[in-house]
Amino acid sequence: MVTEKALDRAAPEGGAMVCSCAERGRPVPVRGRSEAAGRGRNMDFNVSIDEHADAYSIVVVNGEVDLHTAPKVQYAIERGAEGVRVVVVDMAGVAFMDSTALSTLMRAKETLEKGGTSLRLTAPSGAVQRIFDVTGFGDYFEIYPSREDAIAR
């Protein structure tokens, strides 16, 4: 089984990453601090993979997704996509996301689709939903009100 410590050593520059555990249903979290650009405050950030079945994985993101944390989200999505047909990203806990985060989600969607895997976003917070509405990307992504709805589709 891969541990967080092993992931820290194996992670590309930019911080610790997430691994899908050998034991299904056991998330491996990655925590860090995100400094929101220009806002001078820190917010806890974490992302974890919670694999419920062979057909799908759920990636849970909490905190601010920005230039510093977006690579961790991307890595979690990539790892969550291994061996499944659907990756669900639960965004209910995302307090802020910048254009880097939006770009990361777009790239992840395109990459997964090439491999026949679907990326589904769930329960975006009000801040995230506003970004999707303003940019028009609400129509680009598959967005569901809950994890259950995204999995059932």
From TrEMBL:
Name the record gives this protein: Anti-sigma factor antagonist
GO MF annotations, alphabetized: anti-sigma factor antagonist activity
SUPFAM superfamilies, per the entry: SpoIIaa-like
Lineage: Bacteria, Bacillati, Actinomycetota, Rubrobacteria, Rubrobacterales
Coiled-coil parts of chain: none
PROSITE patterns per UniProt: STAS
InterPro entries found in the cross-reference section: Anti-sigma_ant (IPR003658), STAS_dom (IPR002645), STAS_dom_sf (IPR036513)
Classification via Pfam families: STAS
Family: Belongs to the anti-sigma-factor antagonist family.
Gene3D superfamilies the record matches: STAS domain
Domain STAS: start-end pairs: 58-153
